[in-house]
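Hi everyone, sorry if this is the wrong subforum. Our group has a chain we'd like a structural model of before ordering constructs, and none of us has done structure prediction before. Sequence below.
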Amino acid sequence: MNRPSERIRVLIADDNRAVRRGLRLQLEGAPGILVAGEVSNGVDAVHVARAERADVVLMDIQMPQMSGLAATRVLARPDDGHPPIAVIVMTSYAVDGYVSEALDSGAVGYLLKSHDSDQLVGAIYAAARGEALVSSRVTAPLLREFVRRGGVPADPEGSALLTSAERRVISVLAGGVTSNEGIAETLQVSVHTVRSQLHSALKKLDLADRTQLALWGARNRI
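Answer:
Right subforum, don't worry. Here is the predicted structure as tokens:
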């Protein structure tokens, strides 16, 4: 698990005090992570994330005053001089109507609250690097739903631009393995190779992140 050299400022946004405390306990011992604060509603999530210059926000969906999805839409986009902030949406449900809406709102990650500490920390590291990460228990059903709805266009010409190695990486990603480490282990290659192939494929296909790449792979049957 690669971690950044500087500490990542993380804000915890959840209306359940016990959940906030549990997340804080998981993060306080993690290398390179600083818990910058806790809030219990979406309005405070926006204000405190900006005031504390958070790098990543762990965002619950259902909160008072402003929902987590509404707060995500505000934080994920630059506004009035405020830079975008990476948001990881967290929920108790593996498959529900919020998954696609969270990603459409600009969230870079979607995790279940039943995660383990390594998954949580890995998702934060990934978000800080500008990568998208969705829980593997969510990814495959999400991809099937996006494909069923036609949410990603078919692009038969795009496949011709890819090397066989890039197509293999996309295939594993579209199958629900979302981390560089997991893809590398599946294909028996280095994490550096996976990162390089993902970057190349994103550039060739003019896609923004690995979630879009996974959706593209599923839609085009890679």
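For your construct planning: Strands lie at 8-13, 33-39, 56-60, 86-91, 109-112, 133-134. The chain has two domains: 8-133, 141-219.
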